[in-house]
Amino acid sequence: MYIENKVSDSESKQYHFPDIYFQDITEIHNNKEFSVKRKYTGLYTVFINIIEEKTQNCRISFSGVFPRMTYICKNHDFSDTEIYHLNKFRIHCNRIRQNRDIPSYEDYLHDLKSLSDFIAKIYERPIPENLKECLPHATRSITSADYAPDINIRITVSSWDKDFITGYTEDDNSVFVKIDYHKYAQNNDLDYIADLLAENTQLYLLNTKIEKNGILCPEQIIYEPDYLLEISTIARCWKEYGDHPCNYLLEKISPARNTPAMLLGNLAGQFLDETINTQDLHENSYNNSIKRFFIKSALKIITCEESLKDFHHQAKEQMKNIRNFVEKIFPEIHNIERDKLILEPSFICKELGIQGRVDLLQDNYKILMEQKSGKRDIYTNGHKEEHYIQMLLYRLLLSYNFNIKSKDSEQYLLYSKYPDGLMLESSSDPNLMRKILRLRNRIVKYEMLYAEGAIKNILENLTPEELNINAKTNVLWKKFQLPHIRQILSIYQNASYLEKCYFARLFTFISKEHLLAKTGNSSKNRGFSGIWRCEVAEKESTGDILTGLDLVNKEESGIYGGYDTITFSVPSQEDDLLPNFRNGDIVLLYSYPEGDIPNACKAKILRGTIKNICYTEVTVRLQSPQKNTCIFPENQKWVIEHDFWESSYTSIYQALFAFLSADKKRKELLLNLCLPTKDSTKKLNGNYNTENVFLNDVILKAKQANDYFLLIGPPGTGKTSYALVAMVKEALSESSSILLSAYTNRAVDEICDKMDKHKIQYIRIGSELSCDERFRKNLLDEKIRLNPNADIVRKVIQETRVFVGTITSISGKLNLFGIKHFDLAIIDEASQILEPNLLGILCARHKNQTAIDKFIFIGDHKQLPAVVQQSERESIVSEPELIKIGMSDCRNSLFERLINIQKKNGSEDFIHMLFKQGRMHPEISSFSNEIFYEKKLKPIPLKHQLEILHCPSYDKSDGLQNLIASHRLAFIVSKGDKNPISDKTNKDEAIRISALLKTIYTINKNNFNPQTVGVIVPYRNQIALIRKEIKQLNIPALSDITIDTVERYQGSERDFIIYGFTVQKIYQLEFLTGNVFKDNGQTIDRKLNVVLTRARKQLFLIGNPQILSYNIIFQKLIKFIDNRQGVCDIPIEYFIQGKFSCSPADKTSVPDSRQKLNV
């Protein structure tokens, strides 16, 4: 097989995948320095690269390595025996990675043969003779599985019929199994499972018995268990009129409600938390409590859909009842121990495919309590069935996770509306539970169907009658439920054909992103399921877990009572490990016994946000403060893992549906059914030209555009610092209200900084920990803290003319538009925002009009786009109707689509490109300018852009100092490592980078500032390796240099930038060039463009030209630098010692006349 660079068949070198893989495993096997463990590590890397390459364009979602492996094997007609042997290799690799045991050398040889046979068969290439002669001739024997009775087994489905399912187990037994899914099913209630299945479906077989003939007979089956559903979500889908899985769909797309009952529910939850956490009656008085609630819920309160006239009376009743329960009734219940009660712990059950957060749990699991602020069943005066279902699922989850028996636990529903609302409930209803799990399975199946494009057909044919499974005809159905369902369905069914196509394609795209975020993509990304699917060592290697943490401090913020700020010490990390956590990240937090393996599925999980993190400490702000210290056990270690924010997808689904009922003119603009207009009579009120910056023309064009305006801002053109500020000033001169937004919190912080510098008043939308400390005073919470009053809040919002926040933050607070109309929205980083993510803001309504009159997008579509998990094949747009309106790939931003529309229309009235850049010296910008920007960029010029490179003091006999003192742009040749630890590290480059940093420090020792130097590499493992090399230099200032990936560097700049390509294998070029597209016939490499445009004064690139030259743009780059005498091909021992000559006029050389670089 050949692979060719995406750019052009004629421009790219060709290379053979199987030849590379065979060469790799031969070198690994023949390396005498490698232990068996090291050999397995290398072979597994090759194996992973193969299955990634063979599944990268699949439209199927895979939950891990095993299903991807079986998919490839089935497509190439592997026998069950061949799959068994290959899976044995995978299992041995995993056992080594888990540090469990090391296979024998005989096993190793058989595994080497299995991998070699795998490569030979899928690529239809013979095993090379020099490798074949090393392999065993005999085939190893197949061992049978030995399962305990009533076991839970995970399988990958191979085939099925009305009687049996066949598949492969994923455990260490790795066997082909046959499942009778009827024998122990009650009332044939597993018959429906056959309708859900597809090849490679994942199933959990629960309470499985093994017949004498080896057939597995489960009592229950969970479909796609990695797709976790919230327990509360499942319960809400259990409607009085029926349990159709589309109940979940209607809930997802329906506009978010904001009712007094919902507000009261949130307040009642706060009352319970406060009552458990503190017995201070003054601090916990109604007035103090309602003030705290108002501050955090002010926007919801003043935009409530219904009257709040009885709210205080009802709230006081709730508080009185809750206090009575906790203070008087709890002590009378034998098993309740108040000092062991935990607030809102979360749990994940991998077997049941569910997760949830319990309102109140006793540490020893003897008490489980779920609070409800609403009404009980009006007919029975007992529980509502959906509430009981929620409690049953929590009970079942605890049973599977912790083996808690029914007799050892009591379950309560706490209806805090009633003085007698504490109800002890039955912990078991097997028949009802089977129905609930069936609903869970069917909901997940529908979620899979949405990701495959079924939404259009489902919504087109869905009727209220289909949802009304129980054939209800009562008043509740006729007066409330039926009209609501009809209203939602009619919005879609009455839409135009084009609107339906648009909605359906983007809904499919987001559904697939949602699915992949949960279960992982066709690469190694496991999504949220990685928490239980990935081994600790694997998560440590990707930086997605912090283990071995010691709790060193816990504090009460004094707001709600209870410890809410927890600080942990971080143990020293291995040299090749680098945590992937940052301030503001949402995380899971749990403890485990020292010496055990951390397991989130066997823990009480606390959710929180990272307040501060450094190499030695991490501080987390808990979502639910905890007063009782039993949740913080002594002599236990702690773990931090990444959390998943489900609500971020909910807002996108609602935004997509809001598009269907948006203002007609706005829909027509977005669908390219009408052209934007301008008003040429408008004139500027201000002057935005300065000595170096000339913005009057672009600000006037933006002002005259009535509907939208697109500002393209290449690197260093001041699109935020100057253009955005000028637009805001001009709009404020017209008494306009302005919404400012961006994709990242960092960009929003930068906007806030500019507003502060220009003394422009604004309100920041967002949370405290996602906002830089300098700007927290502008958060709405802080603006009203001293005077929490509804009228004051309305006045503050109405009188404030500028609001700032991320797209996510604003999309989560769309009720703002209920009381605030905006004349203008300016969206920065628009090229990084997916089209559906913007629809909630663009389609929001204020009363009977569009909430935002005009929008301006600022960005650069030639820099990195939004991070998307789907491949081009999955995200491509094929619908002719959508292609006509400029949609080609769902991964592209709305900004880019509108740019292409305006270019096609030949109009310059609504689009402008800034071309004066003040960042890069012309020698640095020249390649990007020529290759990516059609030579349109010009220096302003600022002082540093005119200066001749000059180092006042350096050792002219040191070649490395000479190189830095004489070259603004250089390419340093690295030949890579002889025995690389990983294909994601490159020790040769790491050593060269550390030598460069040391030399830059030496030359600039008297005024060195680490904030002026940056290092960019593609892999986190390489960051850790460079940190290790820097540490050995014993220069403290260098430890403060930012070393990061290009994705993290977008939007940043440094005087000195060093970029290490790192790659040592040709197939890694696929990753390096993963963001390439064509623009006017020119190939644009977005990732490389960002790399090359971060440096102000000097840029040094390090890589292997023999590998990089397989890519035409990299080849051009190296030639470009070589033509300017900037290629340095020096052996590493000479390089780090500076033992080579270097001058601007001559190519670098060493005394023994090294071979010149040929590219």
Model description:
- The protein has 1159 residues and is α/β, with parallel strands linked by helices.
- Among the domains are: 2-132, Four Helix Bundle (Hemerythrin (Met), subunit A), CATH 1.20.120; 151-223, OB fold (Dihydrolipoamide Acetyltransferase, E2P) (Beta Barrel), CATH 2.40.50; 543-645, Elongation Factor Tu (Ef-tu), domain 3, CATH 2.40.30.270; 664-914, 3-Layer(aba) Sandwich (Rossmann fold); 922-1149, Rossmann fold (3-Layer(aba) Sandwich).
- Helix content is 39%, strand content 18%.
- It is built from 43 helices and 43 strands.
- A 7-stranded parallel beta sheet has the order 25-26-24-27-30-23-31, with helices on both faces.
- Strand 42 and strand 43 form a beta hairpin.
- The longest helix is centred in the middle third of the chain and has 23 residues, at 497-519.
- Mean pLDDT is 92; it is low at 1-11 and 1145-1159.
Keywords:
about 1150 residues; alpha/beta; Four Helix Bundle (Hemerythrin (Met), subunit A); OB fold (Dihydrolipoamide Acetyltransferase, E2P); Elongation Factor Tu (Ef-tu), domain 3; seven-stranded parallel beta sheet; six-stranded antiparallel beta sheet; 43 strands; disordered N terminus; DNA2/NAM7-like_C; DNA binding; SF1_C_Upf1; nucleotide-binding; metal ion binding
Provide a short characterization of the protein structure.
By secondary structure, the chain is an alpha/beta fold. Among the domains are: 2-132, Up-down Bundle (Four Helix Bundle (Hemerythrin (Met), subunit A)), CATH 1.20.120; 151-223, OB fold (Dihydrolipoamide Acetyltransferase, E2P); 543-645, Elongation Factor Tu (Ef-tu), domain 3; 664-914, Rossmann fold; 922-1149, Rossmann fold (3-Layer(aba) Sandwich).
